[in-house]
Please model this.
Amino acid sequence: MTITKYPRAAFIDLAPETDSFEQAVLTGLRASPKAISAKFFYDERGSRLFEDICNQPEYYPTRTELRLLQDHACELASMIGDNSTLIEFGAGALEKVRILLDALDRPAGYIALDISGDHLKAAADSLAQDYPHMPITAICADYTRSLTLPKDLIDKSRGRTVGFFPGSTIGNFSSQEAHQFLETIRPLVGADGLLVIGVDLKKDPAILNAAYNDKAGVTAAFNLNLIHRINAELDGQFDLDSFAHKAFYNEDLGQVEMHLESLDNQIVTVAGHSFTFSKGETIHTEISCKYAPQEFQALARSAGWRPLTVFTDKMKLFSLHVLSAD
Model:
């Protein structure tokens, strides 16, 4: 473990084990059906494209969650209490946590966890400049796996520890993976801790299908960028014009699915290995599970959490849950 001190923020590298991109791609293309994990979307270009997705008019989750945080910031702060320590999982650009930090009374500290170390360093440094009187620590780690934080980061004699997991990222996990994640992070906040988590709601399929098939084609470019990355990094021979973005809401499973669909019968070479595609065959690239409030609360209970409250917008598009670890 290496620790680097910044002018106002600390950076801790827990050296997370990451799956080999090449091995994951080769294994995924050999599978039936073919599938590649969504975590490989986020190279530099993919990250920029996702930020663009969040600004598309059809993509409601980001702006709806921001409004919920703004509308209920005082209520959340009252539940969290004074001198609290926030732990954000999959911290990203650290935009949404600012709303909570501004509402809290004398927060004791903020810990950001993310697997992308370089991006996290820059975001944490920027946040530290705006909150100079609060200890900020950025930790490069795989927050989906069992994790032990350095003991001196959280002072249990002060306020409670609160997990923060916005963005409905929980939807990218299968129900089994979501249960495991919720179970894994519970010890990090302790017996009196809380979790504030954003969860996308089930709704009219037309709204969901539009959100993942924006008219500007940004989501399509984001999905197809996975092929672009394979070509650039793994000597892939994919013809980008021979694959198409495909996204739809699977109402039976309660999830949006994203695929890359082959437009013809073809053979593709990656890292010296050949793979056959039939016309219409797909590579499954992402799921985004949607939950009714009572469904997610049942999932949380099964992982040891006690639901306290849930906030939803007037159109019932998105939800913010507050869970207790006791």
Summary: The mean pLDDT is 92.
